[in-house]
Write a structure and sequence with these properties.
Elements (H helix, E strand, L loop, with lengths): L4 H8 L4 E2 L1 E5 L6 E5 L2 E6 L2 E8 L5 H7 L1 E6 L5 H8 L4 H6 L3 E3 L5 E3 L4 E13 L2 E13 L4 E6 L2 E6 L4
Antiparallel strand pairs: 1-11, 2-3, 2-6, 4-5, 5-10, 6-9, 7-8, 9-10, 11-12
The structure holds 1,4-dihydronicotinamide adenine dinucleotide and flavin mononucleotide.
The site of flavin mononucleotide has 17 residues, from β3, β5 and α3.
Length: 163
């Protein structure tokens, strides 16, 4: 059976995922975008992957800088996700939050659940996207009571169970 784009997207809309703001800084400048296509690959060496559409305005910046920070959002950061996921000017995206500089020089979001500071050490192109394999150099972890998930084309809050 041929699978068209709409069938794929409708099914993928049922696959809930954390919401992340992926940032970079370096020779090509500063950039950031929202991504749900982020996944753990291996813990030895600690590696995650990020899928980035090559048509995105930020693609040349990430492709040149070869470093990024994955900032996993907490509940309440939906507005920031929309800014980094829309057609908003880059300066306006970054002006909406507080940032620290991570070990690789990439912006680390204050108030994120976790920030993974990475070097991009492998890129594989599949269809419209690049899969960025990222070796993690530093982690900042701030467990907040509520996480954020993108599911069925909307944001949802996840409660952390009481210990
Ligand atoms: N992996 C990606 O590139 C993703 C891109 N988006 C962007 O946000 C827009 C809104 O997304 P939704 O409201 O969730 O509705 P949607 O109907 O456009 O997408 C539903 C689901 O399909 C997948 N998807 C959408 N576009 C994709 C793409 N170009 N490549 C691979 N997977 C894709 C994602 O899992 C997404 O949550 C999308 O049209 C897309 O531009 C959203 C999620 C993931
Ligand atoms: C919830 C959400 C998840 C997204 N996930 C991804 C993703 O995993 N990969 C991707 O390339 N784009 C993803 N996007 C779209 C990018 O954030 C968007 O294309 C990016 O901001 C670049 O836009 P620009 O070309 O206007 O700069 C997502 C958008 C939203 C709202």
């Amino acid at each position: 059976m041929a699978i068209n784009q709409q069938t794929f997207r409708d099914a993928m809309a049922c696959v809930g995922a954390a919401v992340n703001i992926i940032t970079t800084d370096g020779e090509a400048g500063q950039a950031g975008f929202t991504a749900s296509a982020v996944c753990s690959v291996t813990d030895s060496p600690p590696t995650l992957l990020v899928c980035l559409n090559r048509a995105a305005s930020v693609w040349p910046v990430f492709n040149h800088n070869r470093a990024l920070c994955v900032n996993t959002l907490a509940a309440g950061q939906e507005g920031l996700s929309n800014l980094f996921g829309g057609k908003t000017a880059m300066a306006e995206r970054f002006a909406a939050a507080q940032w620290q500089t991570g070990e690789t020089g990439c912006p680390r979001l204050e108030g994120a659940l976790a920030s993974f500071d990475c070097h991009i050490n492998q890129v594989v192109s599949v269809g419209t996207h690049d899969i960025l394999f990222c070796e993690i150099k530093a982690i900042i972890h701030h467990p907040a009571p509520e996480g954020l998930v993108w599911f069925n084309r909307h944001y949802h809050t996840l409660m952390r169970p009481a210990c």
